[in-house]
Each structure stands twice: as C-alpha cells, then as structure tokens.
Amino acid sequence: MTAPKTQDLRDSSLAAQYEAYPYPERDPRDEQKRLFIGSPSHLREIDYWVFGAQRPRSTPLRVLIAGCGTGDGAIMLATQMTRAERAGEVVCLDRSSKALATVQARAKARGLENIRLIQASLNNLAPLELGVFDYIDCCGVLHHLPDPVATLKDLTAHLAEGGGMGLMVYAPYGRTGVYMVQEALEKLAPLNETPSARLDYAKRVMRTLPATAWLRQNGNFGDHLNGGDAGLYDLLLNPRDRAYTVNAFLDLLESAGLESSCLMEPARYNPALFMPDPKLRARLSALSASEQASIAEDLTGNMATHVAYVVRKGARITPPNYQHPDTVPIMREIPGVELAKQMLPNHTLPFAFGTLVVPIALPAQARGILPLIDGQRSVGELAAILSTRGVPHDKFQTVWQETFLTLESLNRVLLQSPA
C-alpha cells in the first residue's frame, strides 16, 4: 500500500468540483424510464472478458466501484445482478457526499438491495480495510488522480485471486480541442476560484466560442452540449485531466502488474478493418498487437477513451472452445434477431466505432444463426438446427468460426458461464 498523499490545489479543486456538480448529472426519477448500458462493468462482459466464462454464475460476486460518481456503472451492474438473481454486493466508493446521495436515491428508486456506499478518497485506501473484490470498476477516474500508478497498484492489491478490473481512461486524439479550451479557461477562471464562479466564465466563453475552435469541430463527445452544468464543468474545467494513448495506457497497466484481457471493442484496435489495401494488410500482419492498436488510434483519430478489462499479469483465463458442441453462446445485449436485421443484403453489418462506421463482413448463414442464440442453446444444438436447413456439419463449423470470432471482436456475441 502507498502512504497517504498530500492534497494539492488541483486535487482540492477536483473535490470541490464533484461536490458542487456531481457527475454525470442524473435525476433519480428517471430510473423508471431507462437504464444506462455501457462498458466496462456489464455483467456478461465481466463473466466473459474477466472470468473467461469459467466462473459459475452461482458464485457470489463482490464488486468495488472505485470512484462511482453518480452511479451509472454501479446501477447498471447491481440491476443486472438483481435481474439475473446473482448473489453478491456492489460497494460504491466516492468522496463526494452529493454523488453518493444520488447513487442512493437511484438505488432506492429501483429497489436495489445489493448496493453499499462508502464515502472516502481513492488516494488513501489502506485505512478503509475494504478486503478483496472479485471485480473492481475504475471508470473515468484514474486520469483525474494525483498518482494514477499508485492508486492502480492499491486497487490491484484489493483484487481477489482470479479477479479483474474494468477501466476507462481518456484518449488524446478523440478529445482534440478539449485541452485547448481547458488551458484558456484555467487562465480566465483560476483553480482557486469557486466552482460556481469558474462555471460562469466557462459558459460565457462557450456562448461566443469562435467557429474555428477545434472543440466545435469535434463530434466525439457531447458533455458540453447536453451534459448540463456537471458535464460542461467536467469536460472543460476539470483541474486534472490526463489523456493516454493506447500504448501509454498499456504501459500504465504494466506498471501496476496488470495486463489487458480485452481492449473494448477488440475490433476497434484492428486497423485492417479500415485498410483494405492488400499490401498494407500484409505489412500490418507483421506488427505486434500493440503496434496495430497504436496505428488504429493514430489513423482513426476518433478514440476519445480507452476501455479495457484487465487481470493480473499472466493470469488471463482462456475461455472455453467456442466450437465445442456443449459451449453455449450468448448475446451481449442486442438480441440476435435484432442484430440479424441490421445486416445488409450484401451480408455486411454496419458497425459504429464511435463516429466511424465500418462495414463488417459476415457469412450469409449468420443471418439465420443469430436469432437462435439465446444463452440456452449450445453450439451443438445450433449445428443440429442448421443441418435441417441444408447446412452440413463441416460447413456449419466454418460458418460458426467466422461468425463467432467476428462478433466476439465486436463484443456482440460472448460465451455463457456455467450455472
């Protein structure tokens, strides 16, 4: 464990920000209307990308949301656990009392009984005696901390054997324009001023922001447009805001004794998807995965964040054989019948990586397989059904391999964990 860190001006300003404007801005009354779904910390993703679809669903899951904010990740995961009748608890840790009050109100609105709140700082975890967790979420937090490496090491020390984390950090190129405005606002609205005064200056700047400002050209995020006061403040006035290229992010993991089991979505980091030239693809195939990921980030220019599931170095769990007859595939979220409807007549699936839409080729038979994937039928049962439709077993094996590996890389089809 690391020693407590002295609170600097940026950190004290950050604490004041989230007490004044808990982020993201949420109204507990809206819980009756919608559930925010995303990555990381989707239950089926955790089962697959962290536990390799090997951990029984009947095993209680102890979760820490490290820096929960107003609770999008916590509410999503706790709701999914409740609906699936999964035992366990979701411990929400944040130093903002107002943010925790929002989480509590949202949980109450949903009748969730598997959430526990702790008001404390991530900068000094040792005195809390939290114990260990099967899964830790630290989403949108590390890049605001005084010492991200030290905190990540502290969190790693709280991982149970075989456990993992879901992380999100900002990426630089997709946030082009943000840091320019941040620098200007720090001069116009210094950190030692109150959050309300700083917000007032930001609003005045945004009302007359020149049309040539890079921020106006960037459609990769919208907190400053539709995120309310909290969204505007977090994007443009945050007193400590680091951004990591994908390689810098992987280096951060390495420094904490961690490795990525999945960069989300995996296909996003495959530059061959948008580089059809055979000579370029041949050159790409000779490069390492991290080099290819870096090229994808460099060329697309729209990655505003990096999301990853991570485990201790050398502890990645290999999922079951996706072609074994007893293996059970499951849709991550969108029902197979709906995903099949999104396929075009040429058997491609238009897939959006943020603001970049790429046509993803699938076998023609995928249109018939997808509606059959329900989290209950095994691969063997899928093959038997397809055989009645004129698809022999050897053909099914080829089609299923291409279908699964493609849709797994898009985080759309995963494998079901044992009961």
From TrEMBL:
Domain Methyltransferase: 63-163
The entry's keywords: Methyltransferase, S-adenosyl-L-methionine, Transferase
GO biological process: methylation
Gene Ontology MF terms: methyltransferase activity
SUPFAM superfamilies: S-adenosyl-L-methionine-dependent methyltransferases
PANTHER family for this protein: METHYLTRANSFERASE (PTHR43464), UBIQUINONE BIOSYNTHESIS O-METHYLTRANSFERASE, MITOCHONDRIAL (PTHR43464:SF19)
Protein name: Methyltransferase
